[in-house]
């Protein structure tokens, strides 16, 4: 099964694999939790299809069966520097004397849901260090800058 970083837009992981029962036998049922994420809906659909096909094939090969349930947790969205929501955020950051670095994110957030509902929304980096690790942190200095950024975004949105 193709897992990990599939391409520049797509990632897939197995989160857990659990079989219950005595340790001296092959259990009759296991629960697998996995995820696939992509900035492209087509690539996401292909990855999910690949994962389910592999699971079905292996289960059938071993005389078992699968009961696969897929749930869409974060709809894909994409903006570029020409989109008004990105332009507004960039101007706000620049007005505060900060540098703008546009990067793609493969994660899921409220921005996915708002954008999917027609409210263009982007994620902003706000000074985190070592994000999504056990060393994740944000300095108080960076934390204290967030309200200024919010106010400047509101100002820039009113100018646009």
Automatic annotation (TrEMBL):
Gene3D superfamilies: 3.30.70.360, Zn peptidases. Keywords: Zinc. The keyword Zinc applies. It holds the Pfam family Peptidase_M20. Its cofactor is Zn(2+). The keyword Zinc applies. GO terms for molecular function: hydrolase activity. This is Peptidase T-like protein. It comes from Gracilibacillus halophilus YIM-C55.5. The lineage of its organism: Bacteria, Bacillati, Bacillota, Bacilli, Bacillales.
């Amino acid at each position: 099964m193709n897992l990990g970083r599939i391409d520049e837009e797509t990632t897939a992981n197995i989160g857990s694999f659990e079989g219950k029962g005595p340790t001296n036998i092959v259990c009759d049922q296991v629960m697998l939790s996995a995820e696939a994420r992509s900035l492209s809906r087509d690539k996401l659909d292909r990855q999910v299809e690949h994962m389910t096909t592999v699971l079905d094939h292996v289960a059938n090969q071993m005389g078992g069966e699968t009961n696969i349930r897929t749930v869409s947790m974060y709809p894909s969205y994409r903006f570029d520097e020409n989109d008004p929501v990105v332009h507004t955020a960039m101007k706000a950051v620049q007005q505060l004397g900060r540098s703008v670095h546009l990067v793609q994110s493969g994660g899921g957030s409220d921005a996915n849901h708002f954008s999917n509902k027609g409210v263009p929304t982007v994620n902003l980096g706000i000074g985190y260090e070592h994000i999504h690790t056990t060393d994740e942190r944000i300095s108080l200095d960076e934390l204290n800058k967030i309200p200024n950024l919010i106010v400047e975004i509101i100002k820039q949105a009113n100018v646009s």
